[in-house]
Amino acid sequence: MENTVELINQIIRTRRSIFPPEYIDKEIPREVIEAIVENANFAPTHRLTQPWRFTIFRGNGLVKLADFLGDQYRQNTPPALYSDAKYETTRTKILRASCVMAINMQLHSDKVPEWEELAAVACAVQNMWLTATAMNVGAYWSTPGGLEALGEFLNLEPSQKCVGLFYMGYHQPGEKPAVRKPIEEKLTWVED
């Protein structure tokens, strides 16, 4: 069991946000994506609502998503703030990824508060992120502007919300030191 703890510690402590400019041109096989998503399904969830839902974009699906987000930027940016470079960056970021997942949440307002559903979805994403790290797949969670419009694009039901995009791609692994303040600064002990 000690080796298991060491392995879990290593994966947790080496997990990093790996951004699309760091991705290499190598497709993530569907089986790898399915294994990553399968571990999302084992996140903790109050009253077993299992609120996580994912829309997975690959291949031409990435082009559709890039076109949509590029058009959203163009339509919703005032002319004085619009930049062709930002438009291209919005599209290129998606097209550099091997896979982008829309992270969606099914609300069960009759059973649990929305924040509990969001916490469960975040746990599901962490499970995916740790699994991706263990499989040498780079990933990061982005929350672009216009999530409501993205929800419409995804044809989400009124009881569903999009809470971000999860980018994934193979990358050249390298050491990225963690930037964290000591845990002692974040603890309050009550023992007496």
Give the total of beta strands: 4
Helix-strand makeup class? alpha+beta
| Secondary structure: helix percent | 40-55%
CATH T-level fold name of the domain at 18-56 and 98-172: NADH Oxidase
Task: Tell me which CATH architecture of the domain at 18-56 and 98-172 applies here.
Answer: 3-Layer(aba) Sandwich
Task: Report the portion of residues in β strands.
Answer: 15-25%
How many helices in DSSP terms?
Answer: 6
What general form does the structure show?
A: globular
Which terms summarize this structure?
NADH Oxidase, 4 strands, FMN, oxidoreductase activity, alpha+beta, 192 residues, four-stranded antiparallel sheet, NADP, single chain, 16% strand
Task: Lay out the secondary structure.
Blueprint: H1 2-14, H2 30-40, E1 52-57, H3 60-76, H4 84-96, E2 99-106, H5 114-134, E3 137-142, H6 147-153, E4 160-170
Antiparallel strand pairs: 1-2, 2-4, 3-4
Helix pairs in contact: 2-5, 3-4
Domain Nitroreductase: 12-170
Keywords: Flavoprotein, FMN, NAD, NADP, Oxidoreductase
Organism: Larkinella arboricola
